[in-house]
Amino acid sequence: MFDRRHFLAAASATTLLPSVGFAKGALAAEKADVVIIGGGLSGLNSAMMLGELGYKVVVLEAGPIVGGRVKTLDTIEGKLDVGASQIGRGYARVLDACMKLGLQLIPEDRDLLPFGFHYKGQWVDPKSWADNPLNQTVGDERRISPMLMGQAVTAKWNPCKELSDWLDPKLADQDISLRQLMVQKGYSPAAIELASYSAPGIGIDETSMLRMWQEETRSIADRRFGTTAGGTGEAGKREHPFGEANDHNAINGLASINNIVGGCQQLPFAMAAKLGDVVRLNKRVGRIAMSDKGASVTCLDGSTYQARFVISSLPFTMLRDVEITGAANPKARDAIAHMPYANTARLYLSVEKPFWKADGLPASFSTDGPIGMFWGIDNHTGEGKHRAMVVMVGKMAQAIAQRENAVPFILSEIEAMRPASKGLMKVVAYKDWARDPLQKGCGFSLAPGQVNAFGRDFVKPWQVLHFAGEHTRRSDFGMESAMESSERVVLEIAERG
Ligand SMILES: Cc1cc2nc3c(=O)[nH]c(=O)nc-3n(C[C@H](O)[C@H](O)[C@H](O)COP(=O)(O)OP(=O)(O)OC[C@H]3O[C@@H](n4cnc5c(N)ncnc54)[C@H](O)[C@@H]3O)c2cc1C
């Protein structure tokens, strides 16, 4: 229904139109069957499949290299994936692409050392948490690890059995926040407070449970392949969701979690190499003008491309900066303008000496303070040099993105909690995805109420404009969702001829 709320959303979308400046001077338009905007996995995979079906395609990528959120940096410690890196056994499409393109996989070696919790200024041992006086939760809640409350509640009440259940209108009344769910289910205020530190998505009030259950249901499917980021089986995943005791054993040649040799960006690089000169770099799209018969796509450098169909694979944080003209489509405009994006910021460190041996505290820890999680990463010998990562997600990642000089601030926070770490850590890299000008976030979210408002429909074609990208997933997650979305748009276009 096109109600007043949607009308206002659509109107505000128009006023949000970009302040983009186009280069002067008209260039002759290049013609293609399909213009694909964005050279991340979903855009490149769409181009490869359409090319195989005989369509003439052009891929317009704003950046100087392809890959988007698959990004491998060259650092003093060698290649480092600061975006996607983990490939599970259930990643059928990504594994297939790696095989076809001749990429080699290795078992992930990011094994985390044991966790503690720094809460209300004190160190908490998760093993004795049930009896800790800081634990104000009640009944069965008392046994839930304090840093896993949000995940535990999300997993416990997941009503989805099939991968697409999250979109089923029969669950429309579950398009609510984690806080609303916990209040409904009678959790104590202390449990709700703890859940706010580990709420999946953006935060305890900001993300729809249906969005989180989509991810949770897909993870359960992956675990059926024996894929866990924390030891074997459901219990391992629950207790160690971030990757303590990774299972490196191969089943059919694949470990539980795999990485690409040379870095994950080898995958989009190999795809682009296969596509050849149809991939155009440094082409930032600023305008899409469409009718029922075709579209004209204009880049900020003034170049124009005409096509029968357009695929946008841009995250909506970026598409909302593109001027789109065409028939009215309030649901798509609402989604483009208002879909929230989560952030992830990570500080990658090398640890000269394992300072946790000096202070006797757990190597890895979560905190209710501003730095989120510190992951001590095992070097597999127990001595000498280790790696570490500070991982900020949710509200903490949003807050850090607002701060200048984030790196010295993070280091000083760690030193305040762990004086033994002083001078023993070297910065290898820092990546804040909200500050990436071609991303402005790490992944899509849906606020409570948005699955009902537009989540089921916004992926439908808008005249000749089709939507790909992880944010248009229906059933998959991570890189697989980008690949899934490209299969859907290619079928949509193929059906139209
Ligand atoms: C920190 C982090 C860790 C992750 N870890 C994992 C993991 O371990 N495993 C996993 O499976 N997944 C992981 N993911 C998710 C995975 O990276 C994404 O789901 C996937 O790469 C998204 O691909 P995409 O094609 O949808 O979008 P993107 O990769 O974002 O592609 C969009 C492209 O559009 C370009 N663009 C933007 N604006 C314009 C414009 N105006 N004109 C032209 N081009 C433009 C961008 O430069 C970008 O290349 C992770 C993501 C992040 C951020």
UniProtKB/TrEMBL annotation:
Domain of life: Bacteria
Domain Amine oxidase: 41-490
Pfam family, one: Amino_oxidase
GO molecular function (one): oxidoreductase activity
Cofactor: FAD
PROSITE patterns (alphabetical): TAT (PS51318)
Binding site for FAD: 42, 61-62, 285, 470
Membrane-spanning ranges: none
Keywords, alphabetical: Oxidoreductase
UniProt cross-references to Gene3D superfamilies, sorted A to Z: FAD/NAD(P)-binding domain
Recorded family membership: Belongs to the flavin monoamine oxidase family.
Name of the protein this chain belongs to: FAD-binding protein
UniProt source species: Novosphingobium umbonatum
